[in-house]
Amino acid sequence: MVEAWGDGGSPERQMWRQRRRAVEEDLAEEARRRGSATARRTPEEEDFTRRLRELWGRAGGPSTERVARHCALSARTLDSYLDGRTIPTEERLRELFDGLSVVCGDEGTWLPAAREAFLGEVLFRARTARKEEKERVRELASALPAGQPAVEYARSFDGFGAVPGVHLGQWFEARRTLSQSKVHRPLQAGICGTAKLGAESIVVAGGYEDDEDFGDVIIYTGQGGRQPETGRQVRDQELTLGNAALATSAASGAPVRVVRPANPGYRYDGLFRVEDYWSEQSREGFGVWRFRLVALLPAEQAVVATQVSGPAIEGAASHMETNNVRSPVLVQRVVRSSAVANFVKQIHDYTCQVCGARLNLSTGAYAEAAHITPLGRPHNGPDEPANVLCLCANDHVLFDFGMLIVNDDLTVVNRFDSHIVGRLREMPGHAVDRRRLAEHRVRHGLPSDGNLR
Questions:
Q1: Are 310 and 349 part of one and the same domain?
Q2: pLDDT for 299-325, tens place per residue?
Q3: Are residues 355 and 425 in the same domain?
């Protein structure tokens, strides 16, 4: 079979595929008789591998060792993609195309279009089919007589919040036992979750030199941009995948499970809330995303431990209704009240500096004080009027999450659709620190000298 693959033509390769498929079907049937299930390779994965080999041939069929010298992937990893043993992630597929672009040089003008086609269609279909196949196998395994036993809480636990039956401080021998217990499902990735639903859990493994662990407060560096072989940061991180999941959790307020190494093994250290996230330059000079996680109070941990906590965003509700589950979500946003904050709100007569709204309640006018540079670690912003804005509740949330950007000339831009909202209003006796506004832009991914138009 190996000789046919290396030296034969199309008929020999087709024969090889047929023989491999027959072996896989025999193994799957044997597994079913044993009461277990085996995932099969999907047609979408076959199509991805076939088209990748065709693209590789169009690029001149370079050796994987040559391409590996120009990207953050090893020749062994590239071989596994071309042989169809594994399907790459979007990030790794981009690395592959980067290496091919260098090897092809001026003759590779067609590569960008091919890359977008692979990312937008071929890879998406392959990875979606793989996910569906894994789900089919899980369902089959639970239905077989000798398969995996049904879990009592499987229908009510959606992956978020405290795991039923797991207590604070519980020790786990390895990543595999963490995965089996549902505390942290991935066997390698440090973040479990999706951009749509949020983050379920993280492992604080100290993989980044910029990480800071203060016990109840963690400054966690996001994923991506590192060279697999050396672990060194080689490019900027993006707000995608696990990073986007943590950002979603910051917006929804849903708690995230935190796991720390216990030497040996791992320890479940409870639920944390993502209070803030921002972009900054790492010690190696590349852009990274940083997340500030704060532990829930003991009373909050106890409350959540008795409930199933789910993601507080659109799409979760229909899932829970289908399973007849009501999933309470704990959402908390810190609104600070201090002498400085009260001064700023009073000087603006509780009127939002962005939209001009003034909220009148039965107890009086209401506004919120938004610190441009957050107080406390790691930002250590000052509690002084120049670092505080008077905002309505809506604009406070948008500003904290970087959706409202204030330029040096005080024009306010909504990043969702890039329209200018207006101009930030100042009052005599309250001037806003432009340096703090520049820091705010940088924390949310704009260049240090960048204004948004």
A1: no
A2: 666 655 544 434 333 333 333 333 333
A3: yes
